[in-house]
Design goal:
CATH class: Mainly Beta
CATH topology: Tachylectin-2, Chain A
Distance between the termini: 16 Å
CATH superfamily: Glycosyl hydrolase domain, family 43
Radius of gyration: 18 Å
Shape: globular
Helix content: under 10%
Bound molecules: beta-L-arabinofuranose
Number of strands: 21
């Protein structure tokens, strides 16, 4: 929901109509990546703060500095804040803007994946390791080799392979990497370097991780989203094209790639037969929430499927002060997902 409509919102009424309430309200949180590790829910969110940066379309106002891991025994139990898990000051290569993270678990170790700007102002993706799902995490000295852009999401397939999905337009810089190197021209513009409206949209990226989960094992590939006729979704198709916040989950043997459409504020999904796609667009999972950004993860908990997402209701509409929430999603017989309205009519 765009910010200019916020001033007309009666937040008391809206919160009553909301399908879920903030999981924590003592800090602002966003971009929740949820996993069940050893029978318990762990949520890896961004930790929103007001650092005093002015709002712009590059997202400079999202100037987060650390991560807290939130844990829950069940989706209805109290969400516990486990304190600082990683601080930007402890990441040698990163200067600022600790944006949406994710985590993975393998052989008793936990891996936190996070984007941040390096000292050249370029978003890279880093990884930090811990013996505990709540951290503290120790960052690798360098960002993942060959990494760029934002919003990492790691998917563990049933054969034990791990894939990392990432990418985000505008302030997420994905459009600056179209030629394989960072294009620093027009640094002030969020939209320079984007394809024309009638060209294929830019894709999120996917790469299989190395066995130690610390590096890409291959050059990242495009996550192509096709329309119902098998044609790539176009850059001008703002209600369906990928913008940021990729996520991958598997349901009934199919791979579901879901993502935010950014400036049209939807969470959409597409279905494929392999972790690499291509994926065919199927519809919307979540209609717009209060706040500019929308970002999610999907996680199975005790046989039910849940959407972890955020809105800006706790701050009464401040774009960069968000709160994480959870709501159940349901599937139809044909594998499609029923669209959620975040606030009841
Ligand atoms: O939290 C900062 C950015 O806002 C994330 O990286 C995007 O996905 C959007 O939610």
């Amino acid at each position: 929901m765009p910010e200019d409509s916020i001033e007309h919102i009666d937040f008391e009424k809206l919160n009553k109509k909301a399908i879920s309430q903030p999981l924590v309200d003592h800090i602002y949180t966003a971009d929740p990546s949820a996993h069940v590790f050893n029978g318990k829910i762990y949520i890896y969110p961004s930790h929103d703060i007001d650092a005093g940066e002015a709002f712009d379309d590059l997202g400079s106002h999202f100037d987060m500095q650390d991560y807290h891991v939130i844990s829950m025994d069940s989706v209805t139990s109290k969400a516990v804040d486990n304190g600082v898990a990683l601080d930007v000051k402890d990441v040698a290569w990163a200067e600022k803007q600790m944006w949406a993270p994710d985590a993975a678990h393998k052989d008793g170790k936990y891996y936190l994946y996070f984007p941040a700007k390096d000292y050249d102002g370029i978003f890279r993706i880093g990884v930090a390791v811990s013996d505990s799902p709540i951290g503290p995490f120790k960052a690798q000295p360098e960002a993942i080799k060959g990494s760029f852009s934002i919003d990492p999401a790691v998917f563990e397939d049933e054969d034990g392979s791990y894939y990392i999905y990432f990418g985000g337009l505008w302030g997420g810089q994905l459009q600056r990497w179209r030629k394989g190197v960072f294009n620093a021209e027009h640094p002030e513009s969020p939209t320079a370097h984007l394809p024309e409206a009638n060209e294929p949209a830019l894709s999120a990226k996917v790469a299989k991780l190395t066995d130690d989960l610390l590096e890409f094992s291959e050059a990242p590939k495009d996550v192509v989203i096709l329309d119902e006729n098998g044609n790539p979704i176009l850059a001008g198709d703002n209600e369906r094209r990928f913008f940021e916040g990729p996520w991958l989950h598997k349901y009934n043997g199919k791979y579901y790639f879901s993502y935010s459409t950014g400036d049209t504020h939807f969470i959409c999904y597409a279905i494929g037969d392999t972790p690499y796609g291509p994926f065919t667009y199927k519809g919307k999972i979540l209609n717009p929430v209060v706040g500019w950004t929308t970002h999610h993860s999907i996680c199975e908990v005790e046989g039910k499927w849940y959407l972890f997402y955020h809105d800006s209701s706790l701050s009464e509409g401040v774009t960069h002060l968000r709160c994480i929430k959870v709501a159940e999603i349901t599937y139809n017989e044909d594998g499609t997902i029923n669209t959620l309205n975040p606030y009841k009519e």
